[in-house]
Amino acid sequence: MLLAPVLTGGLLAGFKWQNALLMAAWVTAYLGFTAVRGAITGRQRKLHAIAAAVYCVCAAVAIAALLWWRIALLWWGIPLAVSLGASLCLIVKGRERSAVNDACLIGASALMTAVSGTCLRLAPSPAWQSFVTAISTPVVWIATAVMSGYFLGTIPYVKTMIRERGNKAWYIGSVAYHCILVVLAILTLNAWLVAFAVLITLRAALVPKLWPRAKPKNIGIGEMTGTALIILIVCLTVA
């Protein structure tokens, strides 16, 4: 979830040094955010605070370099700040493990597909109209939608395997969500996306029933496999 969207966007753009720097900025910023979360809710708050300071400084350096290159990247900071700010509010309220918080984090990460996929098109000017023109790239937004759809689907699926195991409402919701993804994939007329949507729908429907006691490690391996597949499909067929 952390790497796949920003990497996919970079590959769609041609992956130059700017994409690599953007990935470094995003990863260190997210790790800094995670450390801040640990400083708020964790047991070893002092260690988390130190880690937060280190990661945030690294992220600030990378972000400063990116803004020196293209100040228009500031426009992307608005939706990212809203998503991460909403997540931080939920964490402070003790709702760290809620589906809404997961959605906020996934939304921010998925948006990095568009950020990385369009950054090379940005003009030196910070003008709003120039920014809108630069990000008007349908392929990148399709890729962003695909990443969002897939990773948001991991929320109900993983919950049916761990915290909400045996909960019928969560199971029905998970299967229904994935069925909607199949319909949306059909509308793209991309056979590979349709096949992938059907595959993860079968996973959402069958795995909680056939292997309800699967270990988190095995669930994680399945997610890594699915992530690798969707990166390949987006980069090789959507582009």
Structure description:
This protein is an all-alpha fold and 239 residues long. 81% of the residues lie in helices and 0% in strands. The protein starts with a helix and ends with a helix. The model has no long low-confidence stretch (mean pLDDT 95).
Please give a handful of descriptors for the protein shown:
single chain; 239 residues; mainly alpha; globular
Summarize the model shown.
This protein has 239 residues and is mainly alpha-helical. It has helices at 4-13, 17-41, 45-69, 74-92, 99-118, 128-135, 138-161, 168-187, 191-210, 216-238.
Given the C-alpha coordinates, what overall shape results? globular
Largest sheet: none
If helices are DSSP runs of H or I spanning 4 or more residues, what is the number of helices?
A: 10
Let me know the number of strands: 0
> How many domains in all?
2
- What's the order of the H and E elements? HHHHHHHHHH
Strand content: under 5%
Q: Cα-atom Rg, whole angstroms?
A: 19 Å
Please report the distance between the alpha carbons of the first and last residues: 20 Å
Output mean pLDDT: 95
Topology of helices and strands:
Layout: H1 4-13, H2 17-41, H3 45-69, H4 74-92, H5 99-118, H6 128-135, H7 138-161, H8 168-187, H9 191-210, H10 216-238
Helix pairs in contact: 1-2, 1-5, 1-7, 1-10, 2-3, 2-4, 4-5, 5-7, 7-8, 7-9, 7-10, 8-9, 9-10
